[in-house]
Each structure stands twice: as structure tokens, then as C-alpha cells.
Amino acid sequence: MKKIIIMGAGGHGQVVADALIQMDGATPVAFVDENRKLHGKKVMGIPLPGGNSAISTIEHDGIVLALGNNELRKRIFTELSDAGHSFFTVIHPSAIIAPNVIVGDGCMILAGAVINTGTVINDNTIVNTNCTVEHHNVIGPHVHIAPGATLGGEVTVEEEAMIGIGATVLPRITIHNRAVLGGGATAINDIPAGITAAGVPARVKDR
Ligand SMILES: CC(C)(COP(=O)(O)OP(=O)(O)OC[C@H]1O[C@@H](n2cnc3c(N)ncnc32)[C@H](O)[C@@H]1OP(=O)(O)O)[C@@H](O)C(=O)NCCC(=O)NCCS
Fold it and tell me: Which ligand 1 atom is at minimum distance from the Cα of 181?
């Protein structure tokens, strides 16, 4: 049984813990979280001995970064990778993933997600509850696809982009680096790098 540390004990971390508990062959051995009020306590019955520095004191086989913020998740992933740590991909047993789909390290594929044939999901990416990622998508590293989002065929989502809750991306659209597509939005055109777009159809927002 692989022993996995979950970084982040907030709502998302607890959803990831639930998925991990339901997986075969792996178990959450501890949370780590920078919130000092939680140190020495248990969350969902799982020990939380301390902050991120506690990782070195816990026997483990892999880490998953249950942090919704893409920039923070990327930074910590890079730091821990450089220090030689290994990451574990959590896949809820109810997710439906085509056999030829490639899923990178440290990903979180949550309950009810569907990922269809020919898709690639890069490292440290969240495919949240009940998402549909259609065929031949290329999803970059450190991406967050929020609950209920739907991506049509041959969509590209670049590094650190965020697809909001319930958003729709039409086939063959590209969501570029660090772009944000708002909750409920429908992307009918490519979304440029670093831009926030929202609404139906999605339009660039003044920030
Ligand atoms: C689009 C988004 C990023 C904008 O955030 P923001 O820059 O803080 O925007 P604000 O909340 O200040 O709203 C600014 C304006 O945009 C509108 N707006 C905000 N989100 C919107 C959305 N999803 N769709 C349409 N309009 C939206 C607001 O009504 C407001 O309009 P106004 O200027 O006419 O009053 C954010 O609202 C959003 O949708 N985030 C996705 C959250 C999500 O899915 N999280 C997943 C958690 S698992």
C-alpha cells in the first residue's frame, strides 16, 4: 500500500483525500498544511503533523499537492521536484479514463470525471468533479479544470490556465498560458495568455 502525503487540508484537500481513500493500493498517511491551528490535529481522521517542512519527517511514497491556486501549486511542485520528491496521481474510482489517455505525475482526477481517447493530461493538473475532457485534448501542467467544466474535442489548455466551474470550451479552441475562463463561460474563440474571459460567449474582462 503506497503511503501518500496530501499537501493542503482545505475543502479541495479533503475531496482529494476522499478520492485517495477510495483508491486501491494507496492511502493518505498525512496532511501537511501551513495553517498552524491544524498542526498536531487530525482532519478526516488523517494526522496533520505540521506544515510543508514536516514532509521530511513522514514516511511516504509520494505527495499530491491539493492546492487550487495554479501559481502556488506550480511553484511548490517545481521546488519539491528539484529536491528529488516523487508525486502521486490520485484518480477517483468513478472517473472514466480511456485506456490510451496519458496522465502525468501529481494529478487529481476526481469523482465522475470523463477523459476520452487520445487526451494527454500533464503533471500537477486538477481535473475536478464531473468534468468532461473530450477526445484528443492536450492539457498542460499546473492547470485547474473546475467542477462540471466541459471541453470539446481537440482542445488545448496551456500551462497554469484555469477553466472555471461549469464552463464550456468548444472543440479545437486553445486556452493559453495562465488564462482564466470564468465560471459558466463558453469559450468560442481562443483565450490569449494571462487574460480573464467570462460570459456566454466568453469575452475579455477589464481587470
Ligand atoms: C471570472 C472571474 C475570474 C472574475 O473574477 P474577478 O476578476 O474577481 O471579478 P469580479 O467578481 O470583481 O466581477 C467583475 C465583474 O465580472 C462579472 N463576473 C464575474 N464572474 C463572472 C462570470 N463567471 N461570468 C460572467 N460575469 C462574471 C461580475 O458580475 C462583475 O460585473 P460588473 O463589473 O458588471 O459588476 C470569477 O468570477 C470566476 O468566474 N472565477 C471562477 C471560479 C471557479 O470556477 N472556481 C472553481 C473552484 S473549484
Answer: 1
Is the domain of 33 the same as that of 73? yes
Q: How far apart are CA 195 and CA 64, in angstroms?
A: 28
| Catalytic annotation, pick one of 39, 85, 135, 136 | 135
Q: What is the CA radius of gyration of the chain?
A: 17
Residue bearing the CA closest to ligand 1, atom 7 = 207
Pocket around ligand 1 at a 6 A CB cut-off:
68, 128, 146-147, 164-165, 180, 182-185, 196, 198-199, 205, 207
- Per-residue DSSP letter, 23: S
Q: Which of 112, 102, 99 is nearest to 19 (CA)?
A: 112
**pTM exceeds 0.85, yes or no:** yes
Cβ atoms of residues 135 and 156 within 8 Å: no
pLDDT tens track for 73-82:
999 999 999 9
- Grid cell, residue 174, equals 486553445
The residue out of 29, 64, 88 marking a domain boundary is: 88
In which domain, by residue range, is 18 found?
A: 2-88
Q: Could you tell me the CA-to-CA distances from 37 to 12, 47, 50 in Å, in that order?
A: 18, 13, 9
